[in-house]
Amino acid sequence: MSHLIKSSTSSYIMLNKNILLLSLTISLLGITLGGNVLIWPMEGSHWLNIKILIDELIKKEHNVTVLVASGALFISPTSNSSLIFEIYKVPFGKERIEGVIKDFVLTWMENRPSPSTIWRFYQEIARVIKNFHILSREICDGVLKNQKLMDKLKKSKFDILISDPVFPCGDIVALKLGIPFMYSLRFSPASTVEKHCGKVPFPPSYVPAILSELTDQMSFTDRVRNFISYHLQDYMFDTLWKSWDSYYSEALGRPTTLCEIMGKAEIWLIRTYWDFEFPRPYLPNFEFVGGLHCKPAKPLPKVLWKYKGKKPATLGANTRLYDWIPQNDLLGHPKTKAFITHGGTNGIYEAIYHGVPMVGVPMFADQPDNIAHMKAKGAAVEVNINTMTSEDLLNALRTVINEPSYKENAMRLSKIHHDQPVKPLDRAVFWIEFVMRHKGAKHLRPAAHNLTWFQYHSLDVIGFLLACVATAIFLVTKCCLFSCRKFGKTGKKKKRE
Amino acid sequence: MSHLIKSSTSSYIMLNKNILLLSLTISLLGITLGGNVLIWPMEGSHWLNIKILIDELIKKEHNVTVLVASGALFISPTSNSSLIFEIYKVPFGKERIEGVIKDFVLTWMENRPSPSTIWRFYQEIARVIKNFHILSREICDGVLKNQKLMDKLKKSKFDILISDPVFPCGDIVALKLGIPFMYSLRFSPASTVEKHCGKVPFPPSYVPAILSELTDQMSFTDRVRNFISYHLQDYMFDTLWKSWDSYYSEALGRPTTLCEIMGKAEIWLIRTYWDFEFPRPYLPNFEFVGGLHCKPAKPLPKVLWKYKGKKPATLGANTRLYDWIPQNDLLGHPKTKAFITHGGTNGIYEAIYHGVPMVGVPMFADQPDNIAHMKAKGAAVEVNINTMTSEDLLNALRTVINEPSYKENAMRLSKIHHDQPVKPLDRAVFWIEFVMRHKGAKHLRPAAHNLTWFQYHSLDVIGFLLACVATAIFLVTKCCLFSCRKFGKTGKKKKRE
Question: Which of A77, A58, A57, A59 lies closest to A67, judged by CA?
C-alpha cells in the first residue's frame, strides 16, 4: 500500500551522505561542542551534588558559570578558564545563611512531625521557611536588580541555565536572559511543584507524600494520613510560596505565577531512581538520575588514618575517630559491614552503590523519609536520635550486620542501581546537552500546561455532560407527564362518553 | 554525621574485588549469556516488528523459540540452531485468519468512525472482534490444552516470554510455565489495558483517545468527544474482552480476570516514542521503543528495478511500478522527496527515521490516528481514500514537496528520533535481558496493582473524611441547638422570675 515518489535523478551524492553520517554520529555520541552553561546553585549537600554535574560538563569541554551570592556559605569560588564563579553582592554575610540553616535543622529536630504534633510542626517550620524566603528574595534581588550583572550575563550568550529550585529564582533569571532552563531537584513539599507546576500525577492512594515517612504499602489509616498530608503540605506551599507570584509578576512585567514559570522547565532531573523511590507515574521530561555522584571506591591511602582531638576514655578498642574520611572509598571497601548515616540522599546513594546495609539516625528534611524507604526495602534499621540509648544503636548495628537479609537487600538495590541502560551522570549530561543542541525539549512537554485546573480534571466536560443528562431527564419526564395528562383526559372523556 | 563500621582487618582482597569488577562489567555491558526466550507473536506487521527483536536477540547469542499456530498466515517458520519455530496444531488453516483479517479491514474502511457514525462503527467492529476472539481462543486452546507441548515447553526452561498482547493468551502461557513475561504493544482500545491493567493514568483532558484522530490540542468540543471516546471504548473492551475472565480463571484453576493477569507483565515495550506520540504520563515499567526496526539505508542495487504485470497506459513517464521495494532503503535515499503511505506505525517510523514528509491515505486501525499525529506535528498531509480524486493526491504531494515546513518538520522529528541516550532496539533488548538477569523487574512495579479501583481513586478515604466532616457538623449543630434551647429556657425562666 505504500509508494515512493522519487525526484528525477537517482544518483548518490556521497558527500551529502557522509556529512549526514558525521552529523548523525555527533548527535548519537551526544557531542555538543563548547556549550555555555549557567548554574543557579543551592547551599550544603545540594551544592556537593550539582558540583559533580559541573565537573562532568567541564570534562566535556563546556564553559560553566556559577552564580554565587557574596554571602554564600558552602560554595567556595575557585575560578579557572572553563569554570567561572560570578559573585554578586547581597546585603548579608555567611553568618546569616548559617543562622537560618541552623534554625531550620534545630526546629525540625525539636518538632519532628508525627500525627499528633503535625500542626505544631507546620507552624514552627513555616516560620523558618519564611526566613528562608526573605533571604531568597534578597539573593534574587542581588541578580535581577543588578542591571550591570544582567547585561554581562546577557552578553555571555548562555545556552542553558541549570537551577536547583528548592528555593525560587533560577527560572526567572533564565527567562529574563531569554534562555532555556532545567531543574535538578530532590523534591518539593507535597510534591506540589512537580504536581501542579510540572503536571505529574501523584495518586495519593499509593504514592507516599514527601515527609510522611509512609511507603507504597499503606493500610486504610495510612492512606487517610497520606491524603491529609498531601493537602496540608499543598496548603503550606500555597500560603508560603504565594508571595513569589507578585515578585515574579513584577520581575516579568506581566501578571504571572511562580507555578507558571516553573512549569516552563525543559527537563526535570530528579535526584532519585527506582532503587530508592517507589514506582509512580511521571512524564517524559522527567529523568531520574539518583546516585549520579557515585563512583567506584579508590584504595585507601595510609596517610588517611589520622584523627584530631582527645580520644574519649570510654571509646572501645575497635572504634576509631577521624577528622575527615573519604566516605565513598570507605563504603566501597570490601570489609565495610554497615553504614551509620543521618540519611541524606547523597550518603544513602553511596551505600546503595556499594551495597552496604544501613543504620539510619535521621534528623531533618527528607532524611526520615529516606530511611523509611530503605527500611521498606529491607536494607536499613532506624534508631531515633532523640530517644536512642547506646544499647539501641548496638542492637541496630548487630541486626544489619548479622541478619543476612539486610546485606542481601542492599546488594539487590546495588545491582538494580548498576544495571541501567545509561549511568545516571551520563543521562543527566545527555539531557543538558540535548537542551543545548535543540534549544529546548518541547517535544517532551505535556499539553496539560495549556489547561486550567478544572479543564485538566475534565470538570467542565463532566459538568456539561451531567447538564445534558439532566436536561434529557427533565424533557423526558415533562413529555411523560404531558402525555399522561393528555391521555388521562382522553381516557376520562372516553369514559364519560 | 556519618560513621563507618569496619571489620577487624582492613587488608584488600584483590581477588574478590576483581571478581566484583568483572561481574559489574558484565552487568554494565548488559551481557546475559545464553538466555532462553519464548515468543508469543501476532500476525501481519506486528510479526515484522517483533522479528527485528528476535534477530537482535539471536545476534546476542540467545536461543529463541517462536510459538506458531499451524494455521498462521504471515509467520513463515524457518528454524535453525538458535531460532526454533514450535508449531502447534489448530483446527483451521491460513484462509480462516486471512478471512477474519480481510473482514476486519473492509468493515473498518466501510464504517470509518466519525462522530455521527460512531455507534454503528462500534457495532460492526464488535462483530469482527468477536470472530477474532473465537479464533484466539482456538489458538490458546492449541497450546494450553496440548499437554505434551506444555510439558516440552516446561522442560525447555525458558527465562522469559515476550508477548504481543493485541489478543490475549501469551501471558497465561507464561504463567502456566512459571516464567516472567513482558509485552510489545502499540496500543489497546481506549488504552484500557495500559490504563486499567497496567495502572497508567490517561487524563482525558489532554491525552487523545486511541482511534479518535484527536491531538493534544483540543477545543472544548474535542475534549467532550475525547471523554466520550474513552468511555465508549472502555465499554467495548469490557464487553468484548470480558469472556476471557472465565477462560483465564479456568486455565489458572482459580478465579481471576484477564486484567489481573495482564497486570503481571514485568515490562511494557510500547512501539512509539515522543517523536510520534504526544507527551503523557507513564510508569517506570513502560519503555517507549518506537522505530526499533529502523536502520540506515543501504545503497539500492540495479537488479531491484523490476516490475510485474502490465503497465497502465495512463501512467506518467516519471512513475515506476515495482512488485516489491526495499522501503527503508528508498526512504533513506537522498533524492526521496515524499512518502505516500497508508499510515502503519512501521512505515511512519521509517519516514521519521529518514526525515521524509508524508502524504497519508489511512485505511484502518491506528492508521487514521497515526496520520493525525503526523499532521499535528506538521510532517504530513492527509487524503481520504474513500473520496479522493487524482487532483487531491497531486495537491497533497505538491504541498509536502513544495512547502518547506513539511520537510523541516520531518527533519525535526528525525533529529529527535536519532538523539536518544540509547537506540530503541538496544533499549528493548536491554530490558528483555534485564528481566532474564533479575528474573523480573519487580522494583519497577507500582503498588497500584494491590488496590481495588475505589481504593486506587481514594474513594474510600474521601468517603470516610466526608463522613467525619458530616458527623462533626451534625454534632456541632446539635450542641448549638441544645445550648440555644437550654439558654433560651434559662432566659425565659429569668424573664419570668
Answer: A77
CB B197 within 8 A of CB B171: no
Q: Which of A224-238, B19-33, B237-251 has the lowest mean pLDDT?
A: B19-33
Closest among A168, A134, A177 to A263, alpha carbons compared: A168
Which of the four CATH numbers 3.30.160.20, 3.20.20.140, 3.40.50.2000, 3.40.50.720 does domain B329-418 have? 3.40.50.2000
What does the domain layout of chain A look like in residue ranges? 34-93+147-292+423-453, 302-418
Homologous superfamily (CATH) of B32-292+423-440 is Glycogen Phosphorylase B; (3.40.50.2000)
Cβ contact, residue pair B458, A205, below 8 Å:
yes
* Cross-chain Cβ contact B300/A397 below 8 Å: no
CB contact under 8 Å between A2 and B426, yes or no, is: no
Q: Which residues pair with B183 in a beta bridge?
A: B163, B268
Give contacts of A204 with chain B, Cβ < 8 Å: 458, 461
Give tens-digit pLDDT for B135-172. 999 999 999 999 999 999 999 999 999 999 988 999 99
- ipTM associated with this complex: 0.89
Angstroms from B119 CA to nearest CA on chain A: 18
Quote the pTM value. Answer: 0.90
- Summarised one tens digit per residue, pLDDT across range A217-228 is 999 999 999 999
Sign of CA dihedral A257, A259, A260, A265: positive
Nearest CA in chain A to B428: A421
- Residue A205 and residue B281: Cβ atoms within 8 Å? no
Residue of B341, B347, B419 with shortest CB distance to A434: B419
CATH of domain A34-93+147-292+423-453: 3.40.50.2000
Neighbours of B26 (CB within 10 A): 13
Residue type at A290?
G
Q: Which of A2, A200, A335 sits opposite B9 (nearest CB)?
A: A335
Class of the A302-418 domain? alpha beta
Which of A442, A443, A459 to mutate to probe the B interface, most B CBs <10 Å? A443
Cβ <8 Å between B205 and A448: yes
Grid cell, residue B180, equals: 516472567
Beta-carbon separation of B415 and A438 below 8 A: yes
CB neighbours of A250 closer than 8 A, spacing ≥ 6? none
Supply the DSSP string of B75-141, one letter for each residue.
------SSEEEEEE--S--HHHHHHHHHHHHHHHHHT---TTTHHHHHHHHHHHHHHHHHHHHHHHH
Across the interface, do B5 and A201 touch by the CB < 8 Å criterion? no
φ, ψ (nearest 5 deg) of residue A278: -85, 135
Closest CA to A38 of A168, A147, A138, A182: A182
Q: Same CATH fold, A302-418 and A34-93+147-292+423-453?
A: yes
pLDDT per position as a tens digit, A112-160: 777 778 888 888 999 999 999 999 999 999 999 999 999 999 999 999 9
Residues of A with Cβ-Cβ distance to B275 under 8 angstroms: 443
